[in-house]
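Protein modeling request. Please complete all fields; requests missing the sequence field cannot be processed.
Requester role: graduate student
Desired output: 3D structure, token encoding
Chains: 1
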Amino acid sequence: MSQPQMTSPARSAPPDPHAGRTGQPTRPGFAEFVALIALLMGMTAFSIDNLLPAFGAIREDFALPDPNHVQVMVYAYLLGIGAAQFFYGPLSDVLGRRPILFAGLAIYAAGSLAALFTRDFDVLIIARLVQGLGAAAGRVLAIAIVRDRFEGREMARIMSLSMMVFLTVPIVAPAMGSAILAFGSWHLIFVAMLALALLLWVWFGLRMPETLHPEYRMALSLRAIGKGVKLTLTTRRTVGYAVAIGLMMGSLMAYVGSASQVFQTDIYQLGNLFPVVFAVVAGIMAVASFINASLVRRIGMRRLSHAGILGFIATGAVMVASSLAFDGKPPLVLFCGLVAAAQFLFALTVPNFNSMAMEPLGAVAGTASSFIGGFTTLMAAVLGFLVGRAFNGTVLPLSMGYLVLGAIALVFVLWAEKGRLFGHQL
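Delivered output (426 residues):
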């Protein structure tokens, strides 16, 4: 199979005007492009998942009376990501992708340093918020850069390949966090986060040229940015799929926030085996992303994603039924299998939803990525927080979260598609 060109055929994008100029890096090859985009996206997950094994140590270190309170570290980080995304995209459409990413990495590093040295839990929460404000740049610009280079099924394929690499982060991050805790305190985890920021700064700086095409560079004016925002908010497909993404991500964030209590401490009491279970579920999602990347060009985004969300809802229903049948504590193998199935279907669905939401908005890719990403992340943070805080020593609240949020997401997909599933193919 021939390697796809990193251009946007329908838009007849010109060659990168910066490539080959003095001081500008040359365009990376296909595999390196996917790896760099995946690492930009992976910074978000890395900064959550490698901290999960430290929840107990942090709770003990700060003498937190409510075990659910430690989850705030996850949701404060997500709130920072969600809020900042509204700004990074429009700014990158004006100033370019590179300077905005470097600014975001600097903010992320500042938050990491604050978290590393604090002795106050409230300051730690603020530091996590600042980390999120910086990490949002990678989240927005990864998608915008892909949209600069690809569209349609090729974009969906690249997003799936990136997601596959990105999902290896939850496989290794909790184990890395556990290993760090074996040799030192939880503070060292933030040293690892600083190292990741430095790696991204150097790699992106040396290897990724500016991808914003000159004809799509927006003027530095509220009116120009407002036009991009208006186009994003008035495109029915974009809005419908964005809401569906936020709802489904809410179930994922509820799982991430509750995972330590479900598997490590309160229900199944796996202790040091928790990273293994978490890695298995993440590995299932990575497999699903690979399958999606392999099939999306032949089957189409609609067929895969619409089948995925229907399966996701059905799996949520089985999770609720099993929770009720076993008084909220189904056997570990059964519950892990159901969570893995739900996450498998999630990975067949959300990347395609994201591509379909972005597809009509190539001329304002940065702004669109900002508002889609910001809205969906804030929505996921709030919904994940609500479901996570409902944890009551059983898996029933989490199971209900999967079922209810998936069902509401289907309603918005139907609205976006004017009542039709599996319609004309993208």
